[in-house]
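Hi Y.,

Following your request, here is the sequence exactly as I used it, all 450 residues.
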Amino acid sequence: MVSVRPLGSVFLLLSLSLSAVAQTSKAGLLKVGAAKVDLTPSPAELPKQFLGVLDKIYSRAIVIDNGTASAALITLDAGAVRTDIWQHVTHRVETELGIPATNILITATHTHSVPFNMPASDEDKIVQSVKDAKQRLQPATMTFGKGLSYLNIQRDIIDPETHQWWEGPNYGGLTDRTVAVISFKTPTGQPIAVYYNYAMHAVITGTLDLVSGDIPGASSRYIENSLGNDAVPLWSEGAAGDQNPVYFQQTYDLRKIRVEDYAKRGQDISNAMPPGDQGLDRKNPEVIKLMDEQKQMILSMGQLLGEEVLHVERSAKRPDSQIQIFGKQTTVTCPGRERTNEGRGGIAGTYKDGKPIDLRLGLLMIGDVAIGAVDGEVYNEIAQRLKLESPYADTILTTLTNGMAASGYIPDDASFGHNTFEVLSSRLKPGCAETSIVDGIVGMMPKIEY
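Below is the corresponding structure, written out as tokens. Let me know if you'd prefer a different format.
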């Protein structure tokens, strides 16, 4: 049974000028397999600024099949999915495993605690995670549910001292705290995999210079341990462009120490992005304390988020064993800009015209669950608008998916008035991306037939 919006939303969809095709994939008996492969760099592979490994990182994959169509959900513990990685892996999964490119979503957890440049061998490992998942296909049921977690918070705020835009916990700001959970189990109720979506930056351990999956890694490990039976949990990065963890004080304190250290050397970085791994004395007792607290914090928040995912997974009703699978992708183009002045926040940016910016959009329908995708860091308001305008009640947005847009951050239209580092650094001109993303994803959604 298709879960849909009230008829007004359906009529709105039917009136859209953007093309939408009828669902052509026939429903069939659901089979699901899941697997993970270790992506943790060896000591020899670590870049110079990395001091070691705090916790392991992975490629996690879910393969979904209904006898006539198949799809793959892949999540990497990575800052972003480089476009070349996406292209190579998608091509191999399509040619070697027969899963159409339109039905593949490769998402980064956006942890800030991993090397950006993956070694070439990681492509093989990512593909292997999908192969292992496909080999484990077994009859399954699927449920969808929603919960709440108050671990994220809007981070665009006006500083009470300078009265300028800055980054900080904006308790009155717009935040979607929904935890969306797709759960796959065997017909007897044994867990196979969980795909969960939440909007929060994975930035807690970014100053440690240790490889870490940050909060996404900690929450997935907690879920994995609880579910047992080799179940595989996948984090899906929601629209977190302007969303930080609510407990982020240690990072602010460490930044202050770094600014003071640079000032002693005659360099003012108070309104700049400081270089990594510089300006923090790891023998300083205060630095040691704050960094230890960061390590504890990812475990605490990972456990709390993991508990909410488990709560939703246990509470979801109406398991479905016959589903349709439908995927589609498109690209929208928006006017670009190049910044001509500097400053991390608080001061207005000046710009000149830049190259047009392409944004890659995706849609994967698994039964009546609509997963929209964007290859950039999207502001939360855009995801909330997508959910409101989608004709499908069970709609989520996964970001940093299927490549890496040249846009930088993707603010909603209203937020372009904020002189925060996300907005100032965005290579998009205001007035295009929000509507193009929402209309583009909704326009790919199959029309509802009665």
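Residues 285-315 form the longest helix (31 residues).

Thanks again,
Q.
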